[in-house]
Amino acid sequence: MNKNISKTKVYLEIVDQIRQMIYEDGLVSGDKLPSERELSERLKVGRSSVREGLRALELLGLIETRRGEGTFLRDFTDHHLVDLLSTFILQDDKVKNDVKITKELVEKDAIRLVINNLDRPSIELIKYKLEQGDLTLEDDFFLEIVQLSNIHLLFKIWLLLKEYASQLNGSREIKDIKPYLQLLHTIVEENLPLSLQFYDDLKNMSK
């Protein structure tokens, strides 16, 4: 295996381990990370490789090493974290595809929820914003849809996925509002199968 590829893989695993500790264990800035020995055992790599990976993460500002104490999480914003993790994690083609598919699943679920709890005035407002040119990006449009689902957790998940996805390809511009208006029309008609078909057609246009 190419040595550079091997080192990159180690960095990816270390960053992913930190990500899991942050989001699953609720770690905050100032919390101590596992020792080099523990990380070495978890990742099944040599301690020298772990040390190199941690040094790279320290240069990125994710962590800090305190002599005689250990390695600790730095104080950084969620958005900054997304940028930093994207630099490493989104190099993996499978993860890139997973982000895209998961974001689309969330958007489809939001459409289902909007139809089940139809708020026609709010749909008309989205239509008005489209026609006035207030929604210039596709993500602007789906932000309105996901917000309208009234599921706060779903909205937060979508926002995070949007941030990751934007690191890959940016957000697609809305050049023709007609497909988006058609999707809104099927939602107002409470026609879920047709709404999902229009959604798929819309996404296929960007491929």
TrEMBL record:
- SUPFAM superfamilies in the record, alphabetically? Winged helix' DNA-binding domain (SSF46785)
InterPro entries named among the record's database cross-references: Tscrpt_reg_HTH_GntR, WH-like_DNA-bd_sf, WH_DNA-bd_sf
Q: Where are the transmembrane segments?
A: none
Alphabetical keyword list: DNA-binding, Transcription, Transcription regulation
Q: Name one GO molecular function term.
A: DNA-binding transcription factor activity
Positions of the HTH gntR-type domain: 8-76
Q: This protein is called what?
A: FadR family transcriptional regulator
* Organism of provenance: Heyndrickxia sporothermodurans
Instruction: Name the lineage.
Output: Bacteria, Bacillati, Bacillota, Bacilli, Bacillales
